[in-house]
Design brief:
With 107 residues, the protein is α+β, with helices and mostly antiparallel strands. Helices cover 62% and strands 15% of the residues. It has 4 helices and 3 strands; from the N terminus they run αβααββα. Strands 1-3-2 form a 3-stranded antiparallel β-sheet. The longest helix has 25 residues. The chain starts with a helix and ends with a helix. The mean pLDDT is 95.
Length: 107
């Protein structure tokens, strides 16, 4: 199992990366991350939605409501230009950490 601290630190870049592939709603984002991690990372709604709302307040994502055929409303999130820039920066940061750990481990 991956530590909570590492999961928390990776949440923002994982959300931004997932939304880079196209707009999506919360539950689908959680499912994509679970699939990307082959089940090693599983989020709860209580963890995901506060991060999505924080990203929206910071202007990195926007959202829109869509009414489904069933009449149920679903909120879709998508990246903004600022979010795409933030994703480039988060990727650079994670790669630097990854390279540093590989060097420290002697890989």
């Amino acid at each position: 199992m991956i530590s909570r601290e590492l999961i928390a630190a990776s949440t923002e870049p994982l959300i931004l990366s997932t939304l880079q592939r196209g707009e999506n709603y919360g539950y689908a984002i959680m499912e994509k991350v679970r699939a990307f991690s082959t089940g090693k990372i599983e989020w709860t709604e209580g963890m995901l939605y506060p991060v999505l709302h924080r990203l929206e307040r910071r202007g990195l994502v926007k959202s829109r409501w869509e009414t489904m055929e069933s009449g149920r409303k679903r909120r879709y999130y998508f990246l903004t230009a600022k979010g795409r820039e933030a994703l480039v920066e988060r990727r650079r940061e994670w790669l630097a950490v990854h390279e540093t750990l590989n060097e420290a481990w002697g890989a």
